Amino acid sequence: FNIPMLVVGGGGYNIRNVARCWANETALLLDSNLPDDIPFNDYWHYFGPEFKLLVPSKSPDECPNKNDLAHLDALKAKVLENIRRLDGAPSVQFQQIPPFSYMSDGEEDEQDPDVRESQYDKDRHVQRDDEFYDDDND
Question: In 10 A of CB 13, how many CB atoms?
Fold first, then answer.
């Protein structure tokens, strides 16, 4: 596209298809063609049984859309609010907005700023290295 671009992904992927997805998306963004056959490598066994870049698409009955519209609308609103709060580029006149560094779930508003966070609360924010999914439905 010949423009600076930031490409981001979401969650809920099947771990075996993440590399396929990003390889294909990157090729599309770069206007390049990739062969469909995945070359042999240390992780080749992950891409079986078809060993192809593009996975045959499934029917809507085999792969239903489980996204709740209300959840998607709330997520979209939160993302747009975070984008609105981003600082503008230098020399571009914008209204001053207080800095905002992360998406809040509202819990810290209820916390006493004079009380230290417990070890239990700190551990709730740590993601295990062997955890690939958010819940049993991923």
Answer: 16
Task: Using CB atoms within 10 Å of the CB of residue 52, give its burial: 0 to 12 exposed, 13 to 18 middle, 19+ buried.
Answer: middle
CB atoms within 10 A of CB 38: 19
DSSP string, 44-104: GGGGTTTTBSSPPPPPTTTS-----HHHHHHHHHHHHHHHHTSPPPTT----------S--
Position 89, amino acid:
A
User: pLDDT tens-digit profile of 73-132?
Assistant: 999 999 989 888 887 666 666 556 655 554 455 555 566 667 777 777 777 766 666 666
Contact between 4 and 126 (Cβ < 8 Å):
no
Strand, helix or coil for residue 136 = coil
pTM: predicted TM-score of the whole model, two decimal places: 0.41
Side-chain half-sphere exposure of 12, counting CA atoms within 13 A: 5
